[in-house]
Structure formats: C-alpha cells, structure tokens
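Please complete every field before forwarding. Incomplete forms are returned to the sender.

SECTION A: IDENTIFIERS
Entry label: holo-221
Bound molecule: 5-O-phosphono-D-xylulose
Molecule representation: SMILES string

SECTION B: INPUTS
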Amino acid sequence: MLKIAPSILSCDFANLGKEVNDMKLAGADLIHVDVMDGHFVPNISLGLPVVASLRKSTDMFLDVHLMISDPLTYGPQFADAGADMVVFHIESDSPPQAVIDAIKSKGKKVGISLKPKTAAQEVFPYLDQLDMVLVMTVEPGFGGQKFMADMCPKLEIIRRECERLGLLTMDIQVDGGIDNNTIAAAYSAGANVFVAGSALYGKPDYKKAVDELREHARSAI
Ligand SMILES: O=C(CO)[C@@H](O)[C@H](O)COP(=O)(O)O
Ligand SMILES: [Co+2]
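SECTION C: PREDICTED COMPLEX
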C-alpha cells in the first residue's frame, strides 16, 4: 500500500498542531517526526516533549525517525511519549537486537534505517522482526537535499529479500529528496512509504501536493 508521510522538519514549528492537522485533512497517511541529537547527525531538531504534545493533539500515526547515537536509551522513551513506530539507525552505537526488543516491549512498531553508504544486507538478519525498513536517499541531518537515485538498487535488493522470506506486507520507506520528479523511481524500485518534507510543507496547497505525489508515484506503473 502506497503511503505518504509528511516530515514535520519542514513545517512551521510555531503552528505545529495545525501543520499536522492540515496534512491529515490533505489526505496524508502518517506523520514523520525527525529526531536529531547533534551527535549522530550534525543537526538538532526536536525531542520527547514535542512528541508527547503531538500525541495529545492528533490521532495521526506518528512515525518517529531517530537520528541519534543512543536509541537503546531513548527509543523506549519515545515509545512512551506516544510514537506509534520507532525507527532507529543500524549505524547507531546501540546493539540493534536490544533496541528492537526494547521498542517491542513497549507494544510499538519498530523499523531500522540505513544511511546511504550502508549495504542492504546489514538489515537482513533483522527483517523478520521489523515493521519497516527505511532507506535514506540523502545523508541524514537536513531537509531539502537532492534525492540519491543510486539508492534504487538498494530498495530493489531489500524488497526482493522480503519477498524471498515471505514478508509480503513489509513497509519499505524512502526518506530524502522525494518530490514529483523522484517518487516514481523509488516506487518502481520497491518503496511504498514516501517521506516528503520540503515537497509538501513547501507548497501552498497541501491537498494538491499530497494528491500530486500519489499520482506521480502511480505513474510509474
Ligand atoms: O530524515 C530526514 C533528513 O535527515 C528527512 O525526513 C527530511 O526531513 C526529509 O526532507 P526532504 O528531503 O523531503 O525535504
Ligand atoms: Co526522516
């Protein structure tokens, strides 16, 4: 199933509740929340109190993308704060299996994210325990960067391995530089969840922008 996930990193944070609700009204499927610690990536974004406030103000599915060095300590705290899914980086300092167990023990969905230079095969040992794999199509840390089309083979490899294992409902998410010009390539390669920050929050008409992204993805078929 094709899902559109606006990244609030590009929204107007002074009006966060409205910005999320406007994307709900525009037909977005989930909300992507980028958490950056200034250590794993060279940027700082938002933390636990913001996720807790968001949880109180919306029933949208909150997909929390942790770009932090210590997801073992903080992942469960984001789960408690109201994340529906916690996605952590396999390149973090935490042992992946321990993070998966910690998030699942909170009753939340869990995903693993791969930076562009990380091989697809790194996530294979964990696939059968995951709800989602996130393939970064930019170096994590900032919105508004250019889509790396050379990540498409990685998407194909992961989708093929999921099919081989019978994981037919696995969500494969792409994040970074997704817009009307790039979404079809990612969709054709096997992605089905599309994060878009600047391509959605940068537009005056959110519904038109969400609809157009969906249409451009489907134009790949
Ligand atoms: O995780 C990240 C950046 O590290 C993203 O979620 C960005 O927020 C996507 O922004 P655009 O590339 O769509 O502008
Ligand atoms: Co992200």
